[in-house]
Amino acid sequence: MTTPAISVKGLIKRFGEAEVLHGIDLDIPQGQVTCLIGPSGSGKSTLLRCMAFLEEATDGLIFINGEPLGFAPGPQGKPVRLPAARIRAVRSQIGMVFQQFNLWPHMTALGNVSEALKTVHGVRKNEAEERAMIQLKKVGLAERAGHYPSQLSGGQQQRVAIARALALEPKIMLFDEPTSSLDPELTGEVLNVMRSLAADGMTMVVVSHEIGFAAAVCQQIAFLDHGKLLMTGTPQQIFGKPRHPRLDQFLDTYLDRGAAMLV
Ligand SMILES: Nc1ncnc2c1ncn2[C@@H]1O[C@H](COP(=O)(O)OP(=O)(O)OP(=O)(O)O)[C@@H](O)[C@H]1O
């Protein structure tokens, strides 16, 4: 069997006294798109952020392409923290895109995409800009390379943010509500870029309220509710009838946002 791109085992996350993830087990298959859906506050972003080691798990383990992320199994079964260099190496396989684009306002699109290649990876300016242009082409923004964020629409800014993540050549891309701050027209252009990444075989995990996108593009849907993974399956298994009553309740809330097609 192929090693999952990400394997989450018994993940528990507490913020102080509050436990928000209660023991999650989830495999993210290679080359597929997995969508995390669920009501607000169910723990989707926290789970995604743990997968990127932006949050440390309180307990449990996460493996990226078979390698432990952050913590490895210790002698008494207790997770043991790995050295920072090891964490960085495993983490570098992951690219992340957030709801807020967080572009540097004083840099052009090309500057934003090439910056980390130069400063973090020590790539020479010319090569970094060549590689950045390849990614800007991929997201359909080659002709906007010289524009500053203030001269770009929200959708274009998010596409630059995607290109910036792709420039570091991740094996896995995580998206945390990438279209939530965009109006429907601009949402479509970002989802199209994500569709084409999926068609290229990129492993992706997407937290999204775009149920239509989840149904059409994802091979796996994971439904979270109150910090528990209630169901995992294909869109047909998850959205087909009869449905879990909690899922029906959740979909009812989102009917005006693309889920009507599922009913
Ligand atoms: N840094 C934090 N400190 C304390 N509590 C947090 C923190 N981050 C998240 N939480 C809590 O964890 C729970 C899960 O939050 P999370 O953002 O993961 O949910 P979500 O499903 O992504 O919600 P939404 O769809 O609204 O973004 C919530 O109760 C939230 O208040």
TrEMBL record:
Main location: membrane
Keyword annotations: Amino-acid transport, ATP-binding, Cell membrane, Membrane, Nucleotide-binding, Transport
Subcellular location: Cell membrane
GO cellular component, one term: plasma membrane
Gene3D superfamilies the record matches: P-loop containing nucleotide triphosphate hydrolases (3.40.50.300)
CDD domains, A to Z: ABC_HisP_GlnQ (cd03262)
Family (UniProt): Belongs to the ABC transporter superfamily.
Protein name per Swiss-Prot or TrEMBL: Amino acid ABC transporter ATP-binding protein
Organism: Borborobacter arsenicus
Lineage, broadest ranks: Bacteria, Pseudomonadati, Pseudomonadota, Alphaproteobacteria, Hyphomicrobiales
